């Protein structure tokens, strides 16, 4: 697999690297922090973790079902477990273990889907995870969290370690610019993070699509259209309070996600709005239900207009 | 408790399994009867588990991978005082916690099982945690022979050997039948001992209805230092009731009133013999 190393002049990093750094900080003072990997410590940026804390990493080889089952057993014995594997395998092949051994048995594992969405864009459908929100939203007793930037990733990782119930954390390989100059926001699961405010439209995005949504908002602002951008980092439970507020305040709502348009953030929002009589012009941006488009993550975002210009166009089309 | 007393306990457990299956009009009769002697020896002779220590991090862990034979587990847990036996009158009733598979809503149950091939990976995680924490407790899991084709078992078998989990004991209730047909016809897994040995386990075979032999096998754990242990318990599906033994019909067959009366009279005879 060809690796293009992510470097960034501003010091921003891929979220999965931040995850690894925070996990190392936590593990240094808490022997119960355990990472479980399925030959995935390289992609999970956990090589330094394994070197520093050889007693706190459990390697099961390429065996995702076993990865999650073992993680559940460790958690049942009191360990704070992070089960780390590419999201595409983890949430498909080991879905039954997530459903039964983690969620149903209520073992407080943090299931960590790395290189998610179309991070492995050129590798094809086997390596894309565009189903994971849909699958996990339909499973009781798991919080689904998709941090957008380095700040949210650090917060989410630390919070997951403290949370005594199942969590799914999902992120990718791309260097993620911080969304705000100052990151003083309180970060809690289930509360969306408002990045910019404006009453013409609301852009509700998650993960690596929040940044292009924010760029779109800046472009629109230059044209006199003022948009609220929300990083809806928790897909479940959804921040319906914020959603309802935006539906009242704004003239249109656009959701953006690196996921199938079926069953993800967009449909979660649509379902709530429809059932609560909050009807505004509404559009879901994501990956449509069609044969896999391949290329880099950016190529695929371009293809589906998940870009500054593409998102801005959709917002404007709803405001006519 | 001596062997004779344990044998009597097994007969009593068998009667209760049938009673509550008839009450619920549902249950896995044949498999519960095949594994009950194993559970009897585990809970009455082997496991350091009681209602008093169930929240202690030092207790032994038992995870029933063949979750469908929950009636056997419930009857034993009731006998051990985890909950009043009359709770089992609600078995499979609306909103009862006593459903057709083990769940942690029932005191004494470690993990929610029911889907096959899940017990061993969880047990492996438990056993790794014990090693990391330098604790002495042991982890046990009971599998059916019909669930062995599930690939997750073999993934976990590799991990158990890799981590030298000699604090882990898996038991296969080898009753040689499953829902469709004899296991050898559905998907032959023999020779089981050689497979598990090749995966790095130490293996013993016992008569799964011989209380003394089961006890001796458990007493000799770990079979080899540095290796996980597997007990292949040769059992008879439907054991203890002549017309249920080795008969596919009783995989989840529920006895009629007449069949139930006949089964109980057979078991009462066995009880009298066991008392001699
Ligand atoms: Mg069988």
Structure characterization notes:
The complex is a heterodimer of chains A (320) and B (276). By secondary structure, chain A is of the alpha/beta class. Chain A folds into two domains: 15-170, Thiamin diphosphate (ThDP)-binding fold, Pyr/PP domains (Rossmann fold, 3-Layer(aba) Sandwich), CATH 3.40.50.970; 193-319, Rossmann fold. Chain A contains twelve helices and twelve strands. Chain A has helices spanning 15-29, 47-52, 64-76, 87-90, 95-104, 132-137, 150-162, 210-222, 240-249, 265-275, 297-303, 308-319, and strands at 33-37, 57-59, 80-86, 110-114, 143-145, 167-170, 193-199, 201-205, 227-231, 234-236, 253-260, 282-287. A seven-stranded mixed beta sheet of chain A has the order 2-1-3-4-6-5-10, sandwiched between helices. Chain A has a five-stranded mixed beta sheet with strand order 7-9-8-11-12, sandwiched between helices. In chain A, α2 links the parallel β1 and β2. In chain A, α1 (15-29) runs parallel beside α7 (150-162), α3 (64-76) packs parallel to α5 and α8 (210-222) packs across α12 (308-319). Mean pLDDT of chain A is 95; it is low at 1-6. With 276 residues, chain B is α/β, with parallel strands linked by helices. Chain B has a single domain (3-275), classed as 3-Layer(aba) Sandwich (Rossmann fold). Chain B is built from nine helices and five strands, in the order ααβααβαβααβαβα. Chain B has a five-stranded parallel beta sheet with strand order 1-2-3-5-4, with helices on both faces. In chain B, α2 packs across α8 (211-219). Chain B is globular and about 50 Å long. The mean pLDDT of chain B is 97. The interface between A and B is medium-sized, with 28 and 33 residues. The structure holds magnesium ion (MG).
């Amino acid at each position: 697999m060809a690796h293009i190393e992510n470097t960034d002049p501003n010091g921003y990093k891929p979220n999965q690297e931040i995850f690894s750094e925070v996990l190392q900080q936590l593990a240094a003072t808490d022997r119960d922090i355990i990472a479980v990997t399925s030959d995935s410590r390289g992609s999970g940026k956990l090589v330094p973790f394994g070197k520093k804390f050889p007693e706190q990493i459990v390697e099961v080889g390429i065996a995702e079902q076993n990865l999650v089952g073992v993680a559940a057993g460790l958690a049942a014995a009191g360990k704070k477990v992070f089960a780390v594997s590419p999201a595409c395998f983890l949430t498909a092949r080991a879905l039954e273990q997530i459903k039964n051994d983690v969620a149903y048995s209520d073992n407080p594992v943090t299931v960590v889907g790395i290189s998610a969405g179309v991070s492995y864009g050129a590798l094809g459908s086997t390596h894309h995870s565009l189903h994971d929100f849909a699958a996990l939203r339909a499973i009781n007793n798991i919080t689904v969290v998709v941090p957008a930037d380095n700040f949210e990733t650090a917060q989410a990782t630390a919070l997951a370690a403290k949370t005594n119930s199942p969590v799914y954390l999902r992120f990718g390989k791309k260097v993620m610019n911080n969304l705000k100059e100052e990151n003083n926001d309180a970060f809690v699961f289930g509360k969306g993070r408002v990045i910019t405010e404006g009453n013409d439209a609301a852009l509700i995005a998650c993960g690596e699509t929040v940044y292009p949504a924010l760029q779109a908002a800046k472009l629109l602002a230059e044209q006199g259209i003022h948009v609220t951008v929300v990083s809806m980092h928790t897909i479940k439970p959804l921040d319906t309070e914020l959603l309802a507020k935006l539906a009242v305040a704004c003239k249109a709502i656009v959701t953006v996600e690196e996921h199938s348009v079926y069953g993800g953030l967009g449909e979660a929002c649509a379902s709530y709005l429809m059932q609560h009589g909050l009807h505004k012009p509404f559009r879901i941006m994501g990956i449509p239900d069609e044969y896999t488009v391949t290329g880099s993550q950016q190529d695929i975002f371009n293809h589906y207009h998940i870009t500054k210009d593409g998102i801005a166009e959709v917002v404007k089309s709803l405001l006519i | 408790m001596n062997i004779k007393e344990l044998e009597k306990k097994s007969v009593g457990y068998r009667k209760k399994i049938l009673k509550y299956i008839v009450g619920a009009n549902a249950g896995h009769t044949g498999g519960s009867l095949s594994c009950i002697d194993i559970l009897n020896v585990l809970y009455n002779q082997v496991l350091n588990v009681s209602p008093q220590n169930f929240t202690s991090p030092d207790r032994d862990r038992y995870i029933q991978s063949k979750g469908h034979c929950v009636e056997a587990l419930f009857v034993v847990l009731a006998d051990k005082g985890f909950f009043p036996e009359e709770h089992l009158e609600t078995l499979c009733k609306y909103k009862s916690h006593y459903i057709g598979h083990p769940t942690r809503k029932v005191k004494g149950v470690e993990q929610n099982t029911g889907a096959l091939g899940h017990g061993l990976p969880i047990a492996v995680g438990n056993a790794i945690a014990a090693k990391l924490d330098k604790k002495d407790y042991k982890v046990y899991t009971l599998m059916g022979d019909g669930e062995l084709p599930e690939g997750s078992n073999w993934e976990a078998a590799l991990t158990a050997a890799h981590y030298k989990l000699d604090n882990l004991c898996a038991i296969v209730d080898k009753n040689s039948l499953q829902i469709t047909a004899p296991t050898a016809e559905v998907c032959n897994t023999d020779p089981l001992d050689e497979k598990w040995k090749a995966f790095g386990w130490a293996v013993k075979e016992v008569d799964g209805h011989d209380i003394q032999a089961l006890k001796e096998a458990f007493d000799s754990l770990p079979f080899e230092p540095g290796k996980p242990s597997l007990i292949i318990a040769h059992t008879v599906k439907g054991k203890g009731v002549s017309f249920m033994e080795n008969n596919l019909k009783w995989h989840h067959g529920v006895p009629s009133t007449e069949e139930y009366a006949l089964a109980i009279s057979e078991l009462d005879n066995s009880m009298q013999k066991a008392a001699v």
